[in-house]
Design a protein that fits this description.
Subunit structure: Part of the 30S ribosomal subunit. Forms a loose heterodimer with protein S19. Forms two bridges to the 50S subunit in the 70S ribosome.
GO molecular function: rRNA binding; structural constituent of ribosome; tRNA binding
Number of helices: 6
Distance between the termini: 60 Å
CATH topology of the largest domain: Helicase, Ruva Protein, domain 3
Helix content: 40-55%
Largest sheet: 2 strands, antiparallel
Strand content: under 5%
Shape: elongated
Strand order of the largest sheet: 1-2
Order of helices and strands: EEHHHHHH
CATH class of the largest domain: Mainly Alpha
Protein name: Small ribosomal subunit protein uS13
CATH architecture of the largest domain: Orthogonal Bundle
Family: Belongs to the universal ribosomal protein uS13 family.
Pfam family, one: Ribosomal_S13
Amino acid sequence: MARIAGVNIPTNKRVLIALQYIHGIGQKNAQEIVEKVRIAPERRVHDLSDAEVLQIREVIDRDYMVEGDLRRDVAMNIKRLMDLGCYRGLRHRRGLPVRGQRTHTNARTRKGPAKPIAGKKK
């Protein structure tokens, strides 16, 4: 089992797909990593040698912000907005949609399950 950036990536998947299990690496970044290390994208993780896994790990550590560092950076950005008291920060603080979506209906992902209001029955 290959462990890259603190994540056990699945061994029976293609390298291109398995790298996307790391938080912060999507399809485009996985493609770039595979090209930098010069591995065929259709190869499976269990076919990689230890040297190739080490190369992948070094490229990710050197060129990409992933996992804990990325999560911390995003959390700090949100905290900065909340401390500033700007509109986006207030929306984060109240747990409402930040990017202008309607809240009269929908927005259940951000607002949580619907709370019944007494006296609304008709």
